[in-house]
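User: I'm putting together a teaching handout on how sequence relates to shape, and I'd like one worked example. Could you take Thymidylate synthase from Lysinibacillus piscis, show the sequence you're using, and then write out its predicted structure as tokens right after it?

Assistant: Happy to. First the sequence, then the structure tokens directly below it.
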Amino acid sequence: MYIIFVDSVSGTELLQLVSQDVAGVLVAAQGESITFPMGHFKYDFHNLDFYEENGEIKQELVIYVKQI
């Protein structure tokens, strides 16, 4: 599944990855902080989004974070 990290203040996409361990990534994201090349962030909230692509229903987890 696609997992996308987004800055919840600016709406900037920080990282996009594919993982089969969605629960593990979500739990890790809710930890103390997340470090990206552009700074340190803290988990804010998440959404599970469904969309259609080429007639196929797909899903992605969007994790919103705030810079600390």
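A couple of points you could highlight for students: Strands lie at 2-7, 13-18, 34-36, 39-53, 56-67. The longest helix spans residues 22-29.
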